[in-house]
Specification:
alpha+beta; binds nickel (II) ion
């Protein structure tokens, strides 16, 4: 049976700061650069969620992309949009809010809500040029 991958894109804006408490200020700034700014900074995040499955013989759908978008909004972007990712979000605690870590946490929030097909990938773009991807491994 043919497996098809379907991707839905949603967006949110959020603030964060990358900082290791155990390090000196100098080391934090040399490692994290502007992302260590003490008074936070923002990103226009782009979230891409991909599911995989076999198209339904009647509808031709792997998933209703509108419904996938609704799940992404309800579970992720409405909770993260205009928030401080270091402080405000209940499922982001005690972890460095990098795109890498966020993809894992977003996967964990979404996986139980995907029905009739399989979650295949969570991609989070922090800028147009940098993204992290988690495939559940
Ligand atoms: Ni940043």
């Amino acid at each position: 049976m043919a497996i098809v991958y379907v991707t839905r894109v949603e967006r949110f804006n959020a603030a964060h700061k990358l900082w290791v408490e155990e390090w000196s200020e100098e080391k934090n700034f040399s490692f994290f650069g502007k992302c260590a700014n003490k008074n936070w900074h923002g990103h226009n995040y782009r979230l891409e969620v991909t599911v995989k499955g076999t198209p339904d013989p009647q509808t031709g759908f792997v998933i209703d992309a509108k419904k996938l978008g609704d799940i992404m909004k309800r579970e992720i972007t409405e909770k993260l949009d205009h928030m401080n990712l270091n402080l405000d979000v209940d499922f982001i605690k005690d972890v460095q809010p990098t795109s890498e870590n966020l993809t894992i946490l977003i996967w964990q929030q979404l996986v139980t809500h995907i029905k009739g097909c399989e979650l295949a990938s969570v991609k989070l773009y922090e800028t147009e040029n940098i993204f992290a991807e988690y495939k559940g491994e």
